[in-house]
Design a protein that fits this description.
The complex is a heterodimer of chains A (258) and B (353). With 258 residues, chain A is mostly helical. Chain A has one domain: MetI-like (MetI-like fold, Orthogonal Bundle), CATH 1.10.3720.10. In chain A, 78% of the residues lie in helices and 0% in strands. Chain A contains twelve helices and no strands. In chain A, helix 4 crosses helix 6 and helix 8 packs antiparallel against helix 11. The longest helix of chain A is centred in the N-terminal third of the chain and has 34 residues. In chain A, 35% of the residues are buried. By secondary structure, chain B is of the alpha+beta class. Chain B folds into two domains: 233 residues, Rossmann fold, CATH 3.40.50; 111 residues, Nucleic acid-binding proteins (OB fold (Dihydrolipoamide Acetyltransferase, E2P), Beta Barrel), CATH 2.40.50.140. Chain B is 24% helix and 34% strand. Chain B is built from eight helices and 20 strands. Chain B has a six-stranded mixed sheet with strand order 6-7-8-3-9-10, sandwiched between helices. In chain B, strands 13-12-11-14-20 form a five-stranded antiparallel sheet, with no helix packed on it. In chain B, strand 4 and strand 5 form a beta hairpin. In chain B, helix 2 crosses helix 3 and helix 2 packs parallel to helix 4. The chains are: A mainly alpha (258), B alpha+beta (353). The interface between A and B is medium-sized, with 18 and 27 residues. Chain A: InterPro entries: MetI-like (IPR000515), MetI-like_sf (IPR035906). Chain A: Belongs to the binding-protein-dependent transport system permease family. Chain A: One of its GO terms (biological process) is transmembrane transport. Chain A: It holds the Pfam family BPD_transp_1.
Chain lengths: 258, 353
């Protein structure tokens, strides 16, 4: 009996956690011009409107491009930083380590103000370069973490064996280290992509019209109207995240890579 | 020096912050085709020497010559060596054949020539049928064979083996020991291997270097090391021994405390203090007489071909290995006399009294 109660409690907690998503999913099929629950009648009308909305479509395209660029760059930078942190003992190593992890500790709103103040004099506000740099600041800590974990699990003796049998340092990296840390690279890249794709707070400070991302366009849209289009768009975004995570999980095992 | 294939000259390695060097002025040379064992307890510096020769550790000072070239400043990947690591260190993301082909690929050998060479190397270690397997699917012994094939396929100028048998179980170890020796003599490759196991060193190596605390205590053939150890450390490290010390009373005769006179064949000054050793298998059952000690058997270990017995004489314990086919075998509690020929007493050291 107590077991039954316990399971019921757990189910309730999950329901509470998932309720907002559930509500959004249901509302996305509403036909009225404002957000309300429960819906009166259901249709795919809001989805059709989302796909017809040029602002959303082009912002989606930009978000994907920015996300890909950020994911790729964060992996490259993360790999270089991780190699330095894991393989070399140098003065200031602890300091670098702390600096890389600092964005975890600072609220995004504070970071956003800081980044804006830095980018403004460089004329980088509302530019691809600016938004990508800003996103790198918050994603590199994640890629450094996943790649560092992968690197630490690589047996040094295996790399030494490659060296002794004739591999140059670069060949050791390309043929041995890189394949062995690939799961960490992919996981790090996917996480960086998803964070960039989701990021609203910092983006709002950096972009205005030229390189607006999907989250900033959602925010702009909400300021003027609240119709089920937003709900439909949200459902689409959730679906994209789930698909990406499942794909990575199937491909390499996200839990292992993390 | 030119007749030697490998020359290690006054090699020193002191790790930063260490008070004493890990490798302390080590020198040795070996001719082409010889197999040398570096033998010693853990921490004696033997692995450090091997890694310096491979180029994985930079020496503090000293020279390493291979085939007449000084290589201590040559980058690792240009030294043309093969190495078998203790835990094999195979490339986990490659197949067996991929592992073996790696060194050839790094040397720019075209794909068409690699295949037959890889196959020959795999056949040599009896893995010819497993080339397509992933190395993670191999048993311990097979991984070991794969590591050997990977090292030999590049026809290295020197083969290094770091405790190659320590990860195998006892039965496989004996098998691989013979096999490594057989492959080494067939290919004629010069080899250095590191071990802490005296049986391994004695049975595999042409010569062995016994090390302690960063120094080579003695270098010689297994027989020289076993029968004529240079000092107490070597005598104690290799094989069992009865260590006896006493004062020289006459030429070739010492008064052993508690035992009486013992004759030996070595020049020692009268009045000096000598350290002598008798290997257990040098003792024979005999009638009381010179160079014989009588006592009661207080321990017996029957080991098939050999019976190890211990007797107590004047507060000392003597251990003897007797062949079990040698007629009468003593029982526990029986009084026996053990005799040793003066030529079978090993002279270790002498100190002025």
């Amino acid at each position: 009996m107590s077991r039954f109660l316990w399971h019921g409690l757990i189910a309730l907690i999950y329901l509470f956690l998932l309720a907002p998503i559930l509500v959004v999913v249901i509302v996305s099929f509403d036909t009225r011009q404002y957000l309300a629950f429960p819906p009166e009648s259901l249709s795919f009308g809001s989805y059709a409107k989302v796909f017809a909305n040029q602002t959303f479509i082009s912002a989606f395209g930009r978000s994907v491009m920015i996300g890909l660029a950020v994911g790729l760059a964060a992996v490259v930078i993360g790999t270089l930083l991780s190699m330095a942190l894991v393989r070399y003992r140098f003065r200031g190593r602890e300091g670098v380590n702390f600096l890389i992890l600092a964005p975890f500790l600072v609220p995004h709103i504070v970071l956003a103000v800081g980044i804006m103040l830095v980018l403004a004099p460089m004329q980088l506000l509302d530019s691809y370069t600016g938004i990508i740099l800003a996103h790198l600041g918050i994603t590199v800590p994640y890629t450094v973490r996943t790649i560092t974990m992968s690197l630490m699990s690589v047996d040094r003796r295996v790399e030494e064996a490659a060296m002794v049998h004739g591999a140059t340092p670069f060949a050791v990296f390309r043929r041995i280290t890189l394949p062995l840390i690939a799961p960490g690279l992919i996981a790090g890249g996917v996480i960086a992509f998803l964070i960039s794709f989701d990021e609203a707070t910092i983006s709002l400070f950096i972009v205005s019209v030229k390189v607006s991302t999907l989250p900033t366009e959602i925010y702009n849209y909400l300021e003027v109207s609240t119709d089920p289009q937003i709900a439909a768009l949200s459902v689409l975004l959730i679906a994209i995240s789930i698909v990406v995570v499942i794909a990575v999980e199937k491909l390499i095992g996200l839990r292992r890579a993390l | 020096m030119s007749e030697h294939h490998v020359v290690v000259d006054n090699l020193v390695k002191t790790y930063p912050g260490a008070a004493t060097p890990s490798v302390d002025h080590v020198s040795f040379a070996l001719p082409k085709g010889e197999m040398l064992a570096l033998l010693g307890p853990s921490g004696c510096g033997k692995t450090t020497i091997l890694r310096m020769i491979a180029g994985l550790i930079e020496p503090t000072s000293g020279a390493i010559q291979l085939n007449g070239r000084e290589i201590s400043q040559t980058p690792v990947h240009k030294r043309n060596m093969g190495m078998v690591f203790q835990a094999y260190a195979l490339f986990p993301h490659m197949t067996v054949a991929g592992n073996v082909a790696f060194g050839l690929e790094m040397r720019g050998i075209p794909h068409s020539e690699r295949g037959p060479k890889v196959q020959r190397a795999l056949d040599m270690v009896k893995l010819g049928h497993l080339g397509d397997r992933r190395v993670t699917q191999l048993s311990g012994g097979q991984q070991q064979r794969c590591a050997i094939a990977r090292s030999l396929v590049i026809e290295p100028e020197l083969l290094l083996l770091d405790e190659p048998l320590s990860n195998l179980d006892a039965k496989l170890r004996d098998e691989m020991r013979d096999e490594i020796r057989e492959i080494q003599s067939r290919t004629g490759v010069t080899a250095i291997f590191v071990t802490h196991d005296q049986d391994e060193a004695l049975s595999m190596a042409d010569r062995l270097a016994v090390m302690s605390a960063g120094k080579i205590e003695q270098i010689g053939t297994p027989r020289e090391i076993f029968d004529a150890p240079a000092n107490e450390f070597v005598a104690g490290f290799i094989g069992a021994g009865n260590f006896l010390s006493g004062r020289v009373t006459a030429p070739g005769e010492a008064e052993i405390e508690g035992l009486g006179p013992l004759r030996f064949e070595a020049p020692a000054r009268i009045g000096s203090q000598v350290n002598l050793m008798v290997r257990p298998h040098r003792f024979k059952l005999a009638a009381p007489g010179p160079n014989a000690f009588t006592g009661q058997v207080d321990s017996l270990v029957y080991r098939g071909q050999i019976l190890t017995l211990g007797i107590s004489v004047g507060g000392k314990r003597l251990t003897a290995d007797l062949h079990t086919h040698a007629g009468h075998l003593p029982a526990k509690g029986e009084t026996v006399t053990l005799a040793v020929a003066p030529g079978d007493v090993t002279f270790l050291s002498e100190a002025a009294a």
